[in-house]
Amino acid sequence: MAGLMKLGCLVFVFVIAAGPITAKAALSCGEVNSNLKPCTGYLTNGGITSPGPQCCNGVRKLNGMVLTTLDRRQACRCIKNAARNVGPGLNADRAAGIPRRCGIKIPYSTQISVR
């Protein structure tokens, strides 16, 4: 389960861009999930060799939506819950590599530990 929690934030923490702190997160799990759903096949199917344009577009869109610290926290919570639902079939190495594969630059490492 700890590995799944680590994967949960690892999967898409890369979509979280630095932004100002505000009092209210405007991001919903529905928005997070709908943007990242096209990546599920790549993260769970060894036969798919790239994230694909729909996955990359969703990640880019979500990256533009996470504007505040609260948005980033909310996105992380949503991603962890979604990862739990998918289960142990998620590939952490592929998740960590999505920013590079999609050409999305982020200012920090995607390798984090979640307890």
From TrEMBL:
Domain Bifunctional inhibitor/plant lipid transfer protein/seed storage helical: 29-110
GO terms of biological process kind: lipid transport
Source species: Arabidopsis thaliana x Arabidopsis arenosa
Short name of one Pfam family: Tryp_alpha_amyl
Family: Belongs to the plant LTP family.
Physiological role: Plant non-specific lipid-transfer proteins transfer phospholipids as well as galactolipids across membranes. May play a role in wax or cutin deposition in the cell walls of expanding epidermal cells and certain secretory tissues.
Molecular function, one GO term: lipid binding
Descriptive protein name: Non-specific lipid-transfer protein
Coiled-coil stretches noted in the UniProt entry, renumbered to this chain: none
Signal peptide: 1-25
Source domain of life: Eukaryota
Keywords: Lipid-binding, Signal, Transport
